[in-house]
Amino acid sequence: MRSIEPRSRRVFLADFGKVVVGMAVLGACSDGEADPTTTAVSPSSSTTSASSTTQATTTQPPETSATTTEAPTSTEALAGSAAAWERVDLGNVSAYVVVRAGEAVVVDTGNPGSEAAIGDTIQALGLVWDDVAHLILTHRHPDHIGSTDAVMALAAGATAYAGAEDIPSINAPREIVVVGDSDIVSGLEIIETPGHTPGHISVLDTELSLLIAGDAMNGADGGVVGPNPRFTSDLEIANASVVKMAGFQFDTVVFGHGEPVIAGAADLVRALAAEL
Length: 276
Known about the structure:
Elements: E1 54-58, H1 74-79, E2 81-89, E3 94-100, E4 103-107, H2 115-124, E5 132-136, H3 142-145, H4 148-154, E6 159-162, E7 176-178, E8 184-185, E9 188-192, E10 201-205, E11 210-212, E12 218-220, E13 223-225, H5 235-245, E14 252-254, H6 265-275
Parallel strand pairs: 4-5, 5-6, 6-7, 11-14
Antiparallel strand pairs: 1-2, 2-3, 3-4, 8-9, 9-10, 10-11, 12-13
């Protein structure tokens, strides 16, 4: 991943791979958005999906002597991993937590009242709210920003980020930093994916080979479909954003709505883009 100089009000936050990112990606644009009408591009038999998934890359353990040592705590074990991510299934919308070295990034905050479920996932990963350093909001729709005040109150040290054109519609207790194409937030690359909303952004983790699409795409029938036309402000621009995402490499794609595609995701997105 390339390092860039941030644009005005944009922040280069960390060298990729040196931090632990806890990311709860909360998906879904509307209660009805979980049922897109587009035919899904489905994976081959080698591709799987899951409703609650943790993906981790672990370091090779060193050889040990006969001396007995205590087992590490969950936090210590996670800190020894290169990276991990977890989905928070909130029913009609999802959240994701990505963690490296004891630091977390939350992506989206779901509907109002979602902070408890996000906190449970953070705790399951061996962390606490004080370990959440960043909050990325993929777009302005209420089912993605509904718990922003509560999450930012619990994660008092976290900085929030969103696309420029959506920020005026997002209420938050602290300033939201503008991010756009190629900006890096704690090792995660921001991709501008407008169309669903004017300021929609997606997030790419090259270390985990993970794309967090937000509502720029949806999961359906074990595959990938485009954004729901019913809740998309400009479908032509949204389809162009799908084509843009098809130019990146990733194994896994997760959504605001629908089940994650764990393997072979980039091929499915390229197939979808070819149909648009």
